[in-house]
Design a protein that fits this description.
By secondary structure, the protein is an alpha/beta fold. Helix content is 46%, strand content 12%. The chain is built from 14 helices and ten strands. Helix 10 (275-289) runs antiparallel to helix 12 (314-328). Zinc ion binds next to helix 6.
């Protein structure tokens, strides 16, 4: 085991914590508050921010879409550059947090912001940012990753930089009261797959990372089996579990996969599938395709997360238990958004993976384009 781990984001967890941004953001900062389509105006979050910032110099930018686009975000980049903004406050879900990270980094770069996504530009500076989270799912509130879409070309790509870790993240579970059931289910599934991407690889003997990953997976099973959005502790446990799933801890020093995410992003970019739903579509067939490599960890998950008995078919039974878990929260495991032409859809996705250089993915680089095609044949209806 060998790793370097730091998570610099200060977590402000619990009811009423939005008010704490008053002290967390210095008064001499010029703030751009970034948010999405307006859900924060219907649930009191906007007013809480307004009250907390009553003595600050701030302005706002709204309209960041789910799966945020560079086309929209570049308008915010222009504001940050023109107005000398030196603090970005993201108020929303993963899309707003990711979009704000892009704005923070692109505002400190003279070239085309999209270069950050293609890897042409490595981030060297970023405007300081803080996040008020409104949906537990991505972990973006306290990690250094962002996923951005270029609508014009239907490309959805990620960048990672330690410079875009939020300075703070406010996690007040009360904001979840207004989440539509579909978004809550998405959050459960996304957090689940984040844990799997860092766990369902090869046995690591890393007792802390594996044991904590299993504890988080068991939490999600329990929370999904007892959906109770109006219950304080249910919301708090889901919010904290989703955060811990992708704050770097369970992934430290262990082999990771992320192939489900890589393929899933293409489904979102091409067919508009919700992020979490793209993962539930790809993951079961990917696990079956890679069962030789993942057998030991699937069996361990079967025993320690699903309480299954030892059995020759344990790895396959674990995959079935994962599928049942998704179905239990009304999340489908087959793509239907592409219409009726299955082979055209499979080839369109394969073309995008090829174009993005995703020719050998997964922890063993065993998911070649041929393997991706086989995975998609099983995952596309
Ligand atoms: O835009 P508004 O009006 O706020 O509505 C949003 C949006 O329509 C709504 N919503 C959010 N909080 C709400 C609410 N509605 C009512 N009450 C609330 N409290 O929910 C919808 C979805 O929001 P979004 O931010 O898109 O959801 P999520 O947090 O699932 O983020 C998904 C994005 O994050 C990326 C995904 O690819 C996708 O673009 N990811 C980011 C990661 C990271 N940075 O580490 C990792 C993930 O794997 C993921 O790729
Ligand atoms: Zn995800």
């Amino acid at each position: 085991m060998k790793f370097s781990f730091a998570n610099p984001t200060q977590i402000q967890f619990g009811q009423g914590q939005i008010a704490s941004i008053k002290e967390l953001i210095p008064k001499d900062k010029k703030i751009l508050m970034i948010y999405g389509g307006g859900s924060i105006k219907n649930n009191g979050v906007y007013e809480q921010v307004q009250n907390a910032l009553s003595e600050h110099d701030w302005q706002e930018f709204s309209g960041v879409e789910p799966n945020p686009t560079v086309e929209t975000l570049n308008k915010a980049v222009a504001i940050v550059k023109q107005q000398d903004i030196d603090f970005i406050l993201a108020v929303g879900g993963g899309s707003v947090a990711d979009g704000s990270k892009y704005v923070a980094a692109a505002a400190k770069y003279d070239g085309e912001g999209w270069d950050i996504l293609t890897g042409k530009h490595q981030v060297t500076a970023a405007v300081t940012l803080g996040v008020i989270l409104t949906i537990p799912a991505t972990g973006s509130e306290s990690n250094g990753a962002a996923v951005i879409t270029k609508a014009a070309t239907q490309d959805k790509l990620a960048f990672i930089s330690p410079l875009v870790f939020p300075k703070f993240a406010v996690l007040d579970p009360d904001v979840m009261r207004t989440l539509p059931p579909r978004q809550l289910a998405n959050g459960v599934v996304d957090a689940w797959v984040h844990i799997c991407e860092q766990y369902l690889t090869i046995p690591s003997n890393a007792m802390v990372q594996e044991g904590y990953a299993e504890a988080l997976l068991r939490n999600l099973r329990i929370l999904a089996a007892n959906f109770s959005q109006q219950d304080d502790s249910w919301r708090a446990n889901l919010m904290w579990t989703a955060n811990q799933a992708l704050n770097g801890l369970i992934g430290a020093g262990v082999t990771q996969d992320w192939a489900t995410h890589i393929i899933g992003h293409e489904l979102t970019a091409l067919y508009g599938v919700d992020h979490a739903r793209s993962l539930a579509i790809i993951q079961p067939s990917l696990l079956r395709n890679q069962i030789v490599h993942k057998k030991a960890k699937l069996e361990q998950m079967g025993r320690n997360v699903f309480n299954l008995d030892d059995n020759e078919e344990l790895a396959e039974l674990t995959i079935q238990a994962i599928e049942n878990f998704y179905h239990s929260v009304d999340v489908a495991t087959q793509l239907t958004e592409h219409g009726s032409d299955k082979s055209a859809a499979v080839e369109a996705i394969i073309n995008k993976l090829t174009q993005h250089g995703m020719l050998k993915i997964g922890e063993h680089e065993a998911i070649t384009i041929e393997a991706s095609r086989a995975i998609l044949q099983a995952a596309v209806a």
